[in-house]
Structures are given as C-alpha cells and as structure tokens.
Amino acid sequence: MSELNRPIDIYFFPPSPPSRAVLLLIRALELKHNIITTNPAAGENKTSKFLKLNPLHTIPVINDNGFILYDSHVILKYLVDVYGQDDSLYPKDPKKGAMVNLKLYFSACYLFPRFLEYHTPTVYLGHPPCDEAMDKLKDVLEHLNDFLENQNFVAGHELTVADFSVVTIISTIEAAETVNLKAFPNIWVWFQRTKKALETFGYEQINQGAQVFGKLYKNKLSAL
Ligand SMILES: N[C@@H](CCC(=O)N[C@@H](CS)C(=O)NCC(=O)O)C(=O)O
C-alpha cells in the first residue's frame, strides 16, 4: 500500500514493455493501484492532461499520492526504495546497486531503442523490416547473451528490477517472432527462469500485452 494509503495510479498500455515492467513490480510489491489505460496510438498520451504529467508523452507514468514519475527504469528503483520489504530487487549496497543500474541503462539505452527501431516502422508506418535494424537488434542480444554467461539473472545471481525491464522486451520479441531466441542460449535459459520467478506476480496475465504487440506486428508484416 502507498504511503498515504491511497492507490498508486499507473498510466499503462498492455503492449508497452516498459508499462508491463512497472505493473509487474507493483504486483510483486503488492501495492494498491489503479490502472489508467492510455493508448499512445489513439493519442491518449498527447492530451493536455497527460502532458502535464509527462511532457515527454511516454507511458508508463505513476502518480503516487501526488508524486508524479515517468520513465520505467526510474519508477522501478523508486518503488523498491519506497515500498520494498527488503532491498533484494534493488540492493542498497552501492556496488550491487550499480550493477543493477548498468543493466537498467543497458535496457533503456540499447535494448529498448533497438527493439523500437526494428519494429515500429512496420507497426506504425507499414514499412518493410530493415536489415540494418535487425543487425543492430541481434548485436544487442549478443551482448545480453554474453552478460548472462555464468549468472542466473541480468544483474547477477539474484532477480532484480533489471530482469523486470528486460523480460518484458524479450517476451515481446518472442511473441513477434522477429528473432529465434533459442539462437541465444543464455538468454533462452534466463528467459525460462525469469518467467518462473515472476509467475507468482501475475506474469502470464500482465504479459498478455506481448502477444497483442506480436499479433499486431505479424499482421502488419503479412499485409506488406
Ligand atoms: N524510457 C521510457 C520509454 C517509454 C516509451 O517509449 N513508451 C512508449 C510505449 S512502449 C510510448 O509511450 N510512446 C509514445 C511516445 O513516445 O509518444 C520508459 O522506460 O518509460
């Protein structure tokens, strides 16, 4: 439950990986919440009301008793800092915390942008997929695969918020069938392990949005 005992508002859209990462954490921390469905494709992120919350017009956004925050990676850390029963999902130890940051920034600056660069021209503009964007996506997956050599989760041996961020992107790639994830064996094993670890937080239900995105992408592709 939030500090003032009011539910946290989350502006969310199911196909959006960063939205799902935050909702999964809200469920994992058992926080009372209201889901405010906000569809960017329908311009719901560009209303003057929404732009007051987030001038960058992205989802997810949270409103925690008047404290407004956007960017999923920032929200993930904030929620554990404020509401975590312990610091396991985002360790307070500076070095362990830095390892989580490293992978959150990897997700924010490399994995998600390359995911978007490959998929969105097809989904939103009906353009054919671009080979160069695929090479860049595979390159970032190679790095993720290397990070996962000899460790169970993306930031080390324990599940952290970095896994929440990365798994919602990887599951969307799987649903869109853009890359054969089994060709990245460490990612594949980690993916199965992480889904299992997140099962009790409603992973399957929350992550149905990945299938929605996957279907949309495949429909656009077959219409080309
Ligand atoms: N760095 C942001 C990225 C969020 C983001 O790009 N969200 C997409 C949906 S997946 C969005 O809202 N796009 C609409 C727009 O950019 O106008 C985060 O992690 O929250």
UniProtKB/TrEMBL annotation:
<dbReference type="InterPro" id="IPR036249">
    <property type="entry name" value="Thioredoxin-like_sf"/>
</dbReference>
<feature type="domain" description="GST C-terminal">
    <location>
        <begin position="93"/>
        <end position="213"/>
    </location>
</feature>
<dbReference type="Pfam" id="PF13409">
    <property type="entry name" value="GST_N_2"/>
</dbReference>
<comment type="subunit">
    <text>Homodimer.</text>
</comment>
<dbReference type="GO" id="GO:0006749">
    <property type="term" value="P:glutathione metabolic process"/>
</dbReference>
<dbReference type="InterPro" id="IPR010987">
    <property type="entry name" value="Glutathione-S-Trfase_C-like"/>
</dbReference>
<dbReference type="Pfam" id="PF00043">
    <property type="entry name" value="GST_C"/>
</dbReference>
<protein>
    <submittedName>
        <fullName>Uncharacterized protein</fullName>
    </submittedName>
</protein>
<dbReference type="InterPro" id="IPR036282">
    <property type="entry name" value="Glutathione-S-Trfase_C_sf"/>
</dbReference>
<feature type="domain" description="GST N-terminal">
    <location>
        <begin position="6"/>
        <end position="87"/>
    </location>
</feature>
<dbReference type="InterPro" id="IPR040079">
    <property type="entry name" value="Glutathione_S-Trfase"/>
</dbReference>
<dbReference type="InterPro" id="IPR004045">
    <property type="entry name" value="Glutathione_S-Trfase_N"/>
</dbReference>
<dbReference type="GO" id="GO:0004364">
    <property type="term" value="F:glutathione transferase activity"/>
</dbReference>
<dbReference type="InterPro" id="IPR004046">
    <property type="entry name" value="GST_C"/>
</dbReference>
